[in-house]
Amino acid sequence: NLEGLYFVLGNAAGAHDTWSRRAFRHLDRHVSALRSTHTYGRLDAYRTAVADIGRVLAVAGRAAEVAIGLGDYHDRRLAPVRSADLRQAALAPERNPYFGYYQAQLMPRISALNPAVAGISINYLSQALCAFALIGMLKRTRPGLKVLVGGGLITSWMRRPGWTGWWEDLVDRMVAGPGETALLEAAGCPPRGARDLPDYSDLTGHRYLSPGFILPFSASDGCWWRRCAFCPERAERRPFRPLPHTAAVAQLHRLTVQTNPTLIHLLDNAVSPALLKTLAAHPPGAPWYGFVRIGAPLDDLQFCRRLAAAGCVMLKIGLESGCQAVLDDLGKGVGLETASRVLNNLRQAGIAAYVYLLFGTPAENEAAARQTVKFVIDHHASIGFLNTAVFNLPIGSPEGDSLQLRDFYAGDLALYRDFNHPAGWHRAAVRRFLDKNFKRHPRVQTILRRDPPVFTSNHAAYFACGVF
Fold first, then answer.
1. Rounded to whole angstroms, how far apart are CA atoms 139 and 119?
2. Cα(242)–Cα(441) distance, rounded to whole angstroms?
3. Residue 363 burial (C-beta neighbours within 10 Å; 0-12, 13-18, 19+)
4. Which residue in 174, 49, 79 sits closest to 407, CA to CA?
5. Cα dihedral angle (385, 388, 394, 397), rounded to 10 degrees?
6. What are the φ and ψ backbone dihedral angles of 230, each rounded to 5 degrees?
7. What does residue 356 show for φ and ψ, rounded to 5 degrees?
8. DSSP-assigned states of every residue in 3-48
C-alpha cells in the first residue's frame, strides 16, 4: 500500500490551480514532516502536510476517475460492494491508477521470487478494487499461480447471510478468519500447531508516513465481551480466540526488541483486563495504545498510573452514548458513573482517552442524544479525542428482525442495512443534530480540533503526550 502511494505521488502530473501547484512544490517536505516527531507537536503543520499530500493524490486520480486519498479510495464507475464490479476491476487492471506500480515495480519482484502461492489480505472496502486489479494481473501474467485471499473484509463477506461464493475463476481459495494455516497448507507445509512470531524484518525500514515503524500486535481474535447489540462480531458469529496473556506479553517483548518500534498498536477488539494487568506488570518496552472496555481495572486510579508508567499513552474507548437507558438497551454493560471515573482516572494518569460515540441507534432519540452531548461537555477535560459516527445496522444482526429494513446502498456485498427508526430519529435528522447541536459547542469543538485529519486514531497516540 505504501509503495503504491509513493509511486502515484512520484508520477503525478501537475495542475494549474494555486493549491495544487503549492502541494506539488512542497511534496517532499510534507512527506518528511509526517516522518518527523517534531511535527506531532505542531498540529497546524501536520494538517497542512496531510492536506497537501492528499491534494496531490486527488489530482493523480482524476484521469482514472478515481478519488485517491491517504485514507480512502473511491472509484466513480465501480463499487467495491458489487461483485460484478470487482470482477471488472480484475479483468481490466490497466484502468486502475496503481497499474503503473504493479507493472513497473511489483510484478518484476514477484517474477523474481517465482512463488507457487500468493496470499492477499483485504481488510477495508477502500482496498478491494485495487486488490482485485492486482489479482487480475497475477492471473494474466502467472496463470499457474495459486491465489488465496483473506483479511477482515473477506471474512465479513464470507460470514454474510446468503454467501455462496464468487470469483472461482480468479481466486483459488477464500479464507475466513486467521489465514496462517491456510497459507501453509497451500504451500504444502504442514502447520506446526504452535503460534510463531510474525517476521517483520523486511518491513521495519520502509519510509512510513509516521515517525517510524508501528508494531501491530494481536493477542486475540474476536471480542471477549460479545454481548453488545448490533455488533458485527455477533452477527458474524465470530468466536473469541485469545492467547494466554502471559504468552502474549512474552511475544510482544520479543517483537519489540526485534523491531524497535516507535509505537505499539494493540489490535484486539478490546484488550482484556487480564492482559492490561500483565502489561502493567511487564511493560512491553515502547509506547503503546489499543481499544479497551470501560470498567475494572481502569476504575482504579493507581492501576491507571501503573499502566501509564508501563508505556500506555492512549486508550480507545467505545462509550457510544451518554444516556444510561441507551447503553442498557445496547447491552454495553457500562454504567455512566463508572465511565466518568475511568475517564477522570486516565486524565490524572496522563493517558489520553480516544472516545467513540454512536448516534442514531434504535434505542436513541433526540432527548437521549442530548444527554450524550451533556456527558461530553461535562467530561471535556478528560476526553483527548472524539470519534462520532452515525449508526449502521450490520446485515445478519439478530436485533434487526424487529425493524423495518431497506437497502443502505445497492450491492450484493453490502454489509449494512438501513432501517426505519422506531422514534423517527432517521439518519438525516441525526446528521443535522450533530452539525447544529453537537459539533458547534465550544468545548466539543476544542476536542474535535485535536483529532489528526485522515489518520485519526492511528496518529493520535503521537499527539497524546501533549493533550493534557
1. 13
2. 41
3. buried
4. 79
5. 80
6. 65, 20
7. -105, 130
8. HHHHHHHHHPPP-SSHHHHHHHHTHHHHHHHHT-GGGGG-HHHHHH
Rounded CA-CA distance 342/338 in Å is 6
Cell numbers 492490561 correspond to 276
At 230 the pLDDT is 75
Assigned C-alpha cell, 419: 432501517
Q: Give the separation between CA 439 and CA 445, rounded to whole angstroms.
A: 6
Q: Which residues contact 296 (CB under 8 A, 6 or more apart)?
A: 273
pLDDT at 220: 87
Q: Helix 2-11 to helix 43-61 angle, to the nearest 10 degrees?
A: 70
Q: Which helix (H) or strand (E) segment is 372 a member of? A: helix 366-378
Mapping DSSP to helix (H, G, I), strand (E, B) and coil, where does residue 220 land? strand
User: What is residue 152's DSSP assignment?
Assistant: H
Q: What is the pLDDT of residue 194?
A: 66
DSSP state of 243: P
Give the span between the Cα atoms of 447 and 458, in whole angstroms.
16
Q: In this structure, which amino acid lies at residue 23?
A: A
Spans of the chain, pLDDT less than 50? 468
Contact 309, 265 (CB under 8 A): no
pLDDT on residue 236: 61
Inter-residue contact 46 to 36 (CB < 8 Å)? no
Give kind and range of the element (H or E) at residue 420. strand 416-420
Cα–Cα distance for residue pair 122/107, rounded to 1 Å: 19
d(CA 227, CA 272): 15
Instruction: Give the DSSP H or E segment for 68.
Output: strand 66-68
Backbone angles phi, psi at 406, to 5 degrees: -155, 165
Q: What is the pLDDT of residue 468?
A: 45
Plot region of 167 (φ>0 → left; ψ -120 to 50 → alpha; else → beta): left
pLDDT for 18-48, tens place per residue?
A: 889 899 999 999 999 999 999 999 999 999 9
Residue 461 has what pLDDT? 95
Q: Give the whole-angstrom CA distance, residue 89 versus residue 84.
A: 9
97 and 109 Cβ atoms separated by less than 8 Å: no
CA–CA dist 39, 50 (Å, integer) = 11
Closest Cα to residue 242, out of 226, 261, 263?
226
| Residues 183 and 119 sit within 8 Å (Cβ to Cβ) | yes
The SS3 of residue 174 is strand
Bond prior to 297 in cis (omega within 30° of 0)? yes
Confidence at residue 235, expressed as pLDDT on a 0 to 100 scale: 57
Calculate helix-pair angle for 125-141, 83-91, nearest 10 degrees.
40
Q: Which of 123, 149, 151 is nearest to 135 (CA)?
A: 149
- pTM listed for this prediction: 0.94
